[in-house]
């Protein structure tokens, strides 16, 4: 099929910031795109060829949207999978396949998948309802602390809570969930794997998520990770195994923990371009969005190596600010070396909302790290 | 002014491939854009916030378009300048200023500008009509060979002809023109200078246009130029002088000849992102389009250095092909290392039409040069 002709149509489910960054690449290759998103203010609304407002969880909406495209991809996992399955049966190329998404959409299913395929992951228990956890504790089947995770619709840290005592269970929704053993880890790592339908596979260098020492929140994504080469190799092998078993097509971000004794445990995966790969726009030979497009169109994959070291800082809404967004001190960070801000185009800020990110690139990773800290301390996402 | 708010509007005159690449950057910074172009199939039609179809040479169209924006820029020089002057008087920020464009729009005026400011350029004569050249030759005032250039609307090699004998004058339009001494040169070089209203100035590394040994057509733009450091320094100083005297704002591409005896002569300039800077998208810390946006918004300029060596190959329509475009062997070039195609989105090809470009980046410029040759020999822009 000639992707570079106007006869070809690529459908994208979801029109948020990931889709927006994907569209830079479809524009570069002049690929005709059609986007479905529930919001009429979706960042993807411009830059795509056709935009449709609609519910991503609604069977008919997704089915009707998808049946008129040649290849269908996603930028968010919460999609009506029955519609995707039907589209696959009718010959539409859905990448990642519905099967991959089904494994991932439910966190319990995802964890069981790792167990079934002998992929190292933190021990966990599955509960049909949160209320059952208390029984398990009194029976000695569970110990504090653990991480409670809602199995469905967990996205961007919603539906996750560290439980240190019975009291912490108060107020949690009484839904299907998992309770995962809390693993003290040295580092949180991620590897982006890319795979095309012809079977070509490649991995990006291991990245490191550096946490704020007090807030326990990811502050920086650093590429390459400042870890031992053997640990990086281990992480790479495990990510490749996850990719192989999941039979995904496109980009797959594999998030992992490096434990105190240098074990690698898989935390969770995202079968799409991911926050941990945003650095690649400025730092890599082929960024994750172009790579995803290459993969789902079954084009040859690009070079995943880096030109320079890259660090990403998320721009999230400051606490105490809700309303029309203002990027305070933007000009100050533009003065700093190798700094590129990405503004997602959401008009309203609220505390911790992802509003954009900033990439810092430099030949010298230590310099980049210092500049990243200055960026973090300078720009503020506030309201008018 | 807060550029990163929806109250701000950036107007772009012209909606071709340069505008299209500029829009990647306005999207990245979430800057509200409005584009004017005569074609309803302009590559910029999507990705801008507002598109208007209209004549760029019509006073009323340009004036009415411009009076509703805060900053107005161009991606093509042939614009109604009286409208721009009026807009400037009314307080619209027009970058580059109409004065810069007035100097450039007429090639005789541009050449005289170089003479007036003691900027080295090839000797030339100005003629009100092409027919006057013959008299000048018979009077001994002109010698073959020379380069005939129409003073107006010269763009992309149209309106330029090498004249080796009287016969070559046949068929040329009888218009205002210049006849320029043909300078045997070693290299054609270019330097991109960027300047913001606050007076911050920066230059990109000198690039080299490598010509096809027989066809006398630019085949590759190579950054950095493979020339002596002293020559590069000289080119840089002259480009800075042109920039200073022209009082442009934004990006200015200064094209120069390196003569056999290592003199630098200014050929011509373009006060906008330019073909000679396309390599910067993949190779530079700050690409020329982002840099242009930073400059015209009076933001701090970005780093102009390169991360890696970059080579650009233009994708022009193959001879003998007119009609719906096909990019033959696209998949083959995507297999090559560090290769990024840019497809401008013009649906129809014709011989020598600029349809896209390909960038090749590599740590090693010699390797990049080899791959560029493979790219050039592989991809073909043909019709269906």
UniProtKB/TrEMBL annotation, chains A, B:
SUPFAM superfamilies: Glutathione synthetase ATP-binding domain-like (SSF56059), PreATP-grasp domain (SSF52440), Rudiment single hybrid motif (SSF51246). Pathway: Purine metabolism; IMP biosynthesis via de novo pathway; 5-amino-1-(5-phospho-D-ribosyl)imidazole-4-carboxylate from 5-amino-1-(5-phospho-D-ribosyl)imidazole (N5-CAIR route): step 1/2. Gene3D superfamilies: 3.40.50.20, ATP-grasp fold, A domain, ATP-grasp fold, B domain. ATP binds at residues 107, 149, 180-183, 188, 267-268. Coiled coil: none annotated. It holds the Pfam family ATP-grasp. Its EC number is 6.3.4.18. GO terms for molecular function: 5-(carboxyamino)imidazole ribonucleotide synthase activity. Keywords: ATP-binding, Ligase, Nucleotide-binding, Purine biosynthesis. Residues 111-297 form the ATP-grasp domain. It catalyses: 5-amino-1-(5-phospho-beta-D-ribosyl)imidazole + hydrogencarbonate + ATP = 5-carboxyamino-1-(5-phospho-D-ribosyl)imidazole + ADP + phosphate + 2 H(+). The keyword Protease does not apply. PROSITE patterns: ATP_GRASP. Belongs to the PurK/PurT family. Catalyzes the ATP-dependent conversion of 5-aminoimidazole ribonucleotide (AIR) and HCO(3)- to N5-carboxyaminoimidazole ribonucleotide (N5-CAIR). HAMAP family: PurK (MF_01928). Homodimer. This is N5-carboxyaminoimidazole ribonucleotide synthase. It comes from Sediminicola luteus. The lineage of its organism: Bacteria, Pseudomonadati, Bacteroidota, Flavobacteriia, Flavobacteriales.
